[in-house]
Amino acid sequence: MTEIERILDQLKRAYEGNAWHGPSVREALEGITAEQATKRPLASAHSIWELAHHIAVWENAVRRRLEGDRAQIALASPEDWPPVDDQTEAAWEQAKAALDRGHRELCDTISRVPDSRLDEPILEGMSTVYVTLHGIIQHDLYHAGQIAILKRALT
To answer: How far is it, in rounded angstroms, from Cα 151 to Cα 36?
Structure first.
């Protein structure tokens, strides 16, 4: 198994399931309705829906960076944390489908990265490809944990 294949395995576990630590992003989102996804059981925390959007933003940013686009996103901006305008069940299903689609696109892009690129900067002045790929795995896991806590607070 190549190192890229190992990294992809860990990303898929963090996002799709079968992670040893607990629920993946998708497992944490299971059974959450649009109404629940917009609630704020912790007043100063983001909603589950906002977290889902945010995960999608950064998986897309990593994909774009692997493809040569700097994907500059201002932290704490509406681009980093897209607002939830349409709070219908249909919009929630579309948001989750977009999240899944973006994840598949990221995995497809990573699968084409040769191991020889891992120690190179993803782009000039940025972290290495290796650090960036492990960073997106950590990012997914961090927010999966937040979703799990918020989900628990809703029940």
So the answer is: 8
- Does pTM top 0.90 for this prediction? yes
Q: Which stretches of 65-109 are assigned E, i.e. beta strand?
A: none
Residue 85 CB-half CA count within 13 A: 2
Question: Based on the number of CB atoms within 10 Å of its own CB, is 61 exposed (0-12), middle (13-18) or buried (19 or more)?
Answer: buried
Helices and strands, number each (H, E), in the chain: 6, 0
| Residues 18, 23: Cα–Cα separation, whole Å | 8
Domain ranges, ordered by start, for the chain:
3-154
Q: Which CATH number is correct for 3-154, 3.40.190.10, 1.20.120.450, 3.40.50.300, 3.40.50.1970?
A: 1.20.120.450
Contacts of 144 (CB under 8 A, 6+ apart): 14, 22, 23, 24, 25, 27, 28
Phi, psi values for residue 128, rounded to 5° = -70, 165
pLDDT value, residue 51: 98
Helix, strand or coil, per DSSP, at residue 128: strand
Q: What is the pLDDT of residues 89-137, one digit of tens each?
A: 999 999 999 999 999 999 999 999 999 999 999 999 999 999 999 999 9
Which structure tokens are listed for 120?
Answer: 């190179």
